[in-house]
Fold this sequence. Notes:
Pfam families: MFS_1 (PF07690). By secondary structure, the chain is mainly α. The chain is 74% helix and 3% strand. The chain folds into two domains: 8-196 and 288-500, MFS general substrate transporter like domains (Growth Hormone, Chain: A), CATH 1.20.1250; 206-285, no CATH class. The chain has 23 helices and six strands. β3 and β4 form a beta hairpin. α10 (210-237) runs antiparallel to α11 (247-272), α17 (354-368) packs antiparallel against α19 and α20 runs antiparallel to α21. The radius of gyration is 22 Å and the shape is globular. The two termini are 21 Å apart.
Amino acid sequence: MSAPPxxxxxxxxxxxxxxxxxxxxxxxxxxxxxxxxxxxxxxGVDLATIGFFGLVGVPYTFKFLWAPLMDRFEPPWLGRRRxxxxxxxxxxxxxxxxxASLSPTATPxxxxxxxxxxxxxxxxxxxxxxxxxxxxxxxxxxxxxASVHVFAYRxxxxxxxxxxxxxxxxxxxxxxxYETMALIMAACAVVSLLALPRVSAxxxxxxxxxxxxxxxxxxxxxxxxxxxxxxxxxxxxLGLDPNDANRWIQLLFVMAEIALALPLAGWAARxxxxxxxxxxxxxxxxxxxxxxxxxLIILYKLGDAFAGSLTTPFLIKGMGFSQxxxxxxxxxxxxxLTILGAFIxxxxxxxxxxxxxxxxxxxxxxVSNFGFYLLAELGKGAWGAVxxxxxxxxxxxxxxxxxxxxxxxxxxxxxNISGGMGTVAFVALLMGxxxxxxxATHYAMLSAFAAVGRIYVxxxxxxxxxxxxxxxxxxxxxxxxxxxxxxxxxxxxALARLGRPQTDGMVxx
Length: 509
């Protein structure tokens, strides 16, 4: 038998795996978010409709409902984690290629379906990436692992959310951009198949009846459909029209449908005996302060979610910046600053406890939103501009020097550095709340609650910004950031007690 790898090599291999998977996890997000918003904006789609397109990300908030299947079932030969990674990544590559063939104006229905399907698979990939990372890293490496994950995640967003805008402007073709992203995702799948280290999970999947599990999942889906239909019919009986031109009425239908679908899905899963979901949720809620932690997870980045939900339309349509300017400032320079913030946050967390880190970074996130209000009030060119020389890096180039707005760069710097710092502490919090027997389901549920703000504020943001204007909208984003900071202070003792995840033993995946 060959000698086991040295501890240093094993650690480097683990962190390299986190790097690759963080990149694969971050790549699709902008392609159904900021990059898609840019595509819709330049194609002439109105602002409120772009806001409603934010709902294609709804799967991110429901992913814990099917995460138990990824904890319970194991694709043959590859293992429970690596198998699901390869399958979701290959499917994402195929769907991105299909979306590239569609038009948001000529075939809006199919375009929306493709975007929802990509979001579903991206959320599913995130379930496995988060579980793999939590299973793979020992507790001592989790702070560093969170920084590496954020670095790679944001690096992917530089590509799909920043360089993509530059390519789209230079190529005059968003479809070509999405085809390129599909090929990159396929390459990530190859790495997942061939190069990832095996992981240890806390326990084997539950020894439950697989047919009963699938029946429980089907019942849960039926509960979702019943909740959607019941809420819709109730509002129609009250005399409301789902196709009303009033965007607030449309928003009411969407929110009511989602609000009723989720509890009915949970009730159906319990009645039908969806054991992995039921036991994993019971395991989480058995811990002290479980519900309060969920409230903290929703509120902590709510202000960031409002400020960032329509950043691209705000900068392109509201402020008059070009796609290339937004791509360079917000999606390339800005995301590098997020990476810098993530590393600064990781270093600070080696000195400060989780509670103090969350409190400090939460205050900085709140203050950074004031920059968008300042930009909306003062406008483009208020602080002058700096010239960026022409460059050619092979994969991206600018043929002529470009002017970048100083105020825009300042706002982007503050928002992204503070956001990166907050994200590192936030990821560490989520990992600390997981029981490793149900890692996929627990992390999926926690990160789903974290996505509530990012997904559900999008349609509200579109309607609200049209109703009250950009300056008042960004002031509102500052106000809604306050409860998250207050929740951190209120839970200071519980955060100080937060220990390592529960574990009952170790077996090979």
